[in-house]
Amino acid sequence: MRSLTLLLASAAVAHAQHSYNPQGQFDPAVPTPQAVLGYQVGQRFTPHHMIVRYAERVAATSRRIRVDTVARTFEGRESLLIIATNEANHSRLNDIVADAGRVGRVAPDANAAAARLPAIAWLGYTVHGGEASGTEAALALIYQLAAARDTATRMILDSVVVLIDPVQNPDGHERHVQDVMRARGQTGVPVTPGALVHQGNWPGPRTSHYYFDLNRDWFLHSHPETRGRVQTYQKWFPHVAVDLHEMGSSSTYFFAPPMEPVNKNVHASILKWWDIYASANAAAFDERGWSYFRREGYDEFYPGYGVSWPILTGAVGMTYEQASSSGGAIRRSDGTIMTLRDAAWHHYTAAWATILTTARRRTERVRDYAEFRRTAVTEAGGNMRAVVFERDGQGRADSLARRLMDNGVAVRRLTAAADIPNATPFGEQSAGSARVVAGSYVVDFAQPQGRLAKALLEPDAVLDSGFIRTELESRRTNQPERFYDLTAWSMPHTFRVRAWSVRAPVAGTEEIVGAWPAAPVSEPTRGRYGYAFEAGSEASIRMLADLFRDSVRVWHAPKSFRIGTASFPKGAFIVRVASNDTTVHAAVRQAVTASRARVVPLASAMVDDGTDLGSNSVIPLRIPRVALLGGAPVNGNSFGFAWYQFDNRMRYPVTSIAAAGVSTALLENFNVLVVPSAAAGGLDATFGAGGRAAIQAWVRNGGVLITLDAATGWLATEQLGLARLRLRRDTTRADSAGGAPLPAGVPGAIVRAYGDTLSPLLAGVHGADIPVLLNSDRIFTVPRNLEAGEAVIRYAAEPRLRLAGYLWPEVPARVASSPYLWTERVGRGRVIGFAGDPNFRDMWRGLLPIFANAVFLGGSF
Predict the structure, then answer these.
(1) How many CA atoms lie within 13 A of 161 on its CB side?
(2) What H or E segment, with its residue span, contains residue 83?
(3) Phi and psi for 76 in degrees, rounded to 5?
(4) Which helix (H) or strand (E) segment is 574 a member of?
(5) Cα separations (Å) of 381 from 445, 446, 460, 849?
(6) Least confident of 426-435, 499-508, 510-519, 739-748
(7) Which residues, 6 or more positions from 23, have their beta carbon under 8 angstroms from its beta carbon?
(8) Which CATH architecture has domain 626-857?
(9) How confident is the model at residue 737 (pLDDT cuts 50, 70, 90)?
(10) Can you name the CATH fold of 35-377?
(11) How many helices (H) and strands (E) does the chain have?
(12) Among the listed ranges 6-15, 594-603, 763-772, which one has the minimum average pLDDT value?
């Protein structure tokens, strides 16, 4: 009997072996990945339901593991957090969270809390759905921490709370898994790079449900995964944060330190820890003879990455990049085969080295984190101590303040109007006294989250002059640039609010605490003549959308008017009772409740000041039936940005149609067609002569064609023949050392533009300056016979053009005064072209009213 028991025990131990630790001893009560999944880690990609199943099975059998759900994706999948630590730490987890908060908030007893606090390490895997070796590595690490009996594992669990997000992008990851499953045969994965198993379907698995890159969403919070993740992050205040990615299959492995540029708000202590962790990772890789590199390919400038945001809060944030196995096994340029098993093994090894180092240096890491948070309060100042932004009647400043608070940034509010000395308006260079209204928001950078706040709000992120000199020389000699992402993102610009940077603390403020107060909205009394509401706010956009969805007839008043105490600027919307059926009152009340828009009942068409509401200048609006072009060759991100705006900001139905299927019969179902960014040649080839002719006829018969970003280059072609706008041909210069053209693509800057305030497309858009994103090398020219109202928005003149970010030296002169937003009448229809993408990343909340006006008003003027 005893021999049988030993035999069974030996069999259990043998069954419980680890893919990457075959000699380890493991608790046989904890199921191996193979026991639940049916295969060893690295043999297949694991679908989401099996990830959840395995996590729950491990949590049910190991006292070291707990599973939380931090969010649900747009497609309904759980976004998990696995909490791994020893039993003693689990029993006092609430105390650990409380101590982490004391340190993170720099409480009076922060030092005492830091002394008893375990280190907290955050490991995030597979934020890009196709970079799926990370998720498999996470499963292997979960098993190791749950079941291993070795000394190193026990030391980690004693000293660290390991927070594992095994798949940061469940929707994109599932697209990848299903694409590979459908293309994989019984004999395994073909390693030929061009094989179908490595291709995926449009637009690929990298992105979220709405085709956003979630690795750019950390301060924008457009997605539930990000909102849940950031909220959870701010509960735990991690001291280390690693984001595990994949890169090209023929590369090796990257870990921090990153390349230049590094955001100037990154504290010097982070640089020290990059080197500490790099040494640990290098030793682990050297032991196995694996290749790796540092300081090239990946920067830390944009603050919205999955490690850049944590770095600015005090964590040692590090990007790890593994060469991709693509569909599971692929032949690389050197002839070797990169398999999923190997890719996951490399990620597992780097993560293990990271948490082992964190455990060994727990005291030092927690102490440095606490010091980061403390000095963020004490060292704030210099040329910029705070940012003040004015509350506006359209709610953009409220939205910005709410977003900052969601990022953990403390926001205060002026209790009375104030004159603020040494205030520099955003977009200007000279400081002076600013009169700021009561209710304006103040963000003082002397706070634990101050470095993040400054990175998000400062008017212009500083690029190192040495970096710029190197880039100019590289460009001259036709070398690749090192700009990895945007060079500008200042949130007061993107929200289009009036803001100032100030050099000293601002007095007379009150703290905003608790839940954000909902704006008071009262149900309008019954209007005898009708109802009116202003344009320009997100609430008014949703109000108009709700009315259109209920088939309510709405009019547009292009001139200002006043009735009693209610004044309406240019572009208000009017609902006439007599022109609608008897349900109109209920429809208006319902729309007010849903949108929270401010609506004024009207007893008469006669106004006290301005143009009467029965004027011929008050025009009826056509209810839009909108199609959104998708499928190859449309850029998936741009498609997703527009789709997101319709679904989540405008809340208006849109039908996606495939570019390859455009026909006269299909277009007859719609009167608005939005074409996201796509190369002109790709659109022409996909449409063919038949599709192009169908679009031409549809526009001339009354359709509204709206093009975004690169698709406006297609609109501007003579072959399409629908616009007099043209693409400038000399957007590159032939004056480099070898006579080759210099690349002129702008790496994401914010520039000033001016609008034609008489245009209906700018209804509700107040103020002369309109910040926009410049993010390409496309420059358009207007025709000599330019007509009034066609060039709706133009870039500013050269001296006033740049607001933030980097422009190549010759770009300002070339871009100056060229059109950003173009429209013209074509037969009974209209074309509207944006030189950039107003929906980019859901970042440009200040441009949403302009895009909405194009959709809702474009067919009516």
Answers:
(1) 29
(2) strand 78-84
(3) 90, 10
(4) strand 572-576
(5) 8, 8, 16, 36
(6) 739-748
(7) none
(8) 3-Layer(aba) Sandwich (3.40)
(9) very low
(10) Aminopeptidase (3.40.630)
(11) 26, 36
(12) 6-15
How many residues belong to the chain?
Answer: 861
Question: How high does pLDDT run on average in the chain?
Answer: 94
| Per-position b or e across 721-737, b if 16+ CB within 10 A of its CB | ebbbbebeeebbeeeee
pLDDT at residue 567 above 50?
yes
Rounded to 5°, the CA angle 94-95-100 comes to 100
Please, what is the angle between helix 340-360 and helix 151-159, to 10°? 60
Which residue in 659, 663, 783 sits closest to 716, CA to CA?
783
DSSP-assigned beta bridge partners for residue 320: 244
Please give the Cα distance from 623 to 551 (Å, whole number).
Answer: 7
Q: Are 242 and 123 in contact (CB under 8 A)?
A: yes
Q: HEC states along 619-659?
A: EECCCCCEEEEECCCCCHHHHHHHHHHHHHHHCCCCEEEEH
Q: Is the whole model's pTM more than 0.90, yes or no?
A: yes
Element holding 791 (H helix, E strand) = strand 791-795
On the question of pLDDT at 836 being above 80, the answer is yes
Contact 462, 488 (CB under 8 A): no
Q: Describe the crossing of helices 340-360 and 362-378 by its angle, rounded to 10 degrees.
A: 80
C-alpha–C-alpha distance, residues 72 and 81, integer Å: 12
How far apart are alpha carbons 201 and 178 in whole angstroms?
10
Cis amide linkage into residue 633, ω under 30° from 0:
yes
CB 224 within 8 A of CB 853: no
Question: Concatenated DSSP letters for 682-696?
Answer: HHHHHHHHHHHHHHH
Query: Does the pLDDT at position 6 exceed 50?
Result: no
Cα dihedral: 320, 323, 329, 332 (round 10): -170
DSSP 8-state symbol, 810: T
In a 3-state reduction of DSSP, which class is residue 225?
A: helix
CB 133 within 8 A of CB 325: yes
Q: At what angle do helices 93-104 and 362-378 cross, to 10 degrees?
A: 40
Residue 740 confidence (pLDDT): 52
- d(CA 854, CA 838) in angstroms, rounded, equals 11
CA distances from 219 to 223, 359, 698 (A): 11, 29, 41
Mean pLDDT of 822-829: 98
Q: How far apart are CA 536 and CA 775, in angstroms?
A: 25
The Cα angle at residue 225 between residues 220 and 227, in degrees rounded to 5:
45
Say which residues have a Cβ less than 8 Å from residue 843's Cβ, sequence separation at least 6: 220, 489, 494, 773
Residue-wise pLDDT tens digits, 486-516: 999 999 999 999 999 999 999 999 998 877 7
Contacts 24+ apart (CB under 8 A), 275-280: 276/357, 276/361, 277/240, 277/316, 277/318, 277/353, 277/354, 277/357, 280/353, 280/354, 280/356, 280/357
The mean pLDDT value for 232-236 works out to 98
Token pair for residue 719?
């072959």
Strands 65-72 and 119-125: unpaired
Domains in the chain: boundaries: 35-377, 380-511, 530-620, 626-857
Q: Does an H or E element contain 72, and which?
A: strand 65-72
Spatial distance between the Cα atoms of 54 and 823, rounded to a whole number of angstroms: 55
Structure tokens at 754: 């001016």
Strand partners, 733: 742
DSSP string, 550-565: TT---EEE-S-EEETT
**Residue-by-residue DSSP string for 153-188:** HHHHHHHEEEEEES-S-HHHHHHHHHHHHHH-BTTB
Taking the C-alpha atoms of residue 487 and residue 489, their distance in angstroms, rounded to an integer, is: 7
User: Cis omega (within 30 of 0) on the bond before 261?
Assistant: yes
Distance of CA 706 to the CA centre of its chain: 23
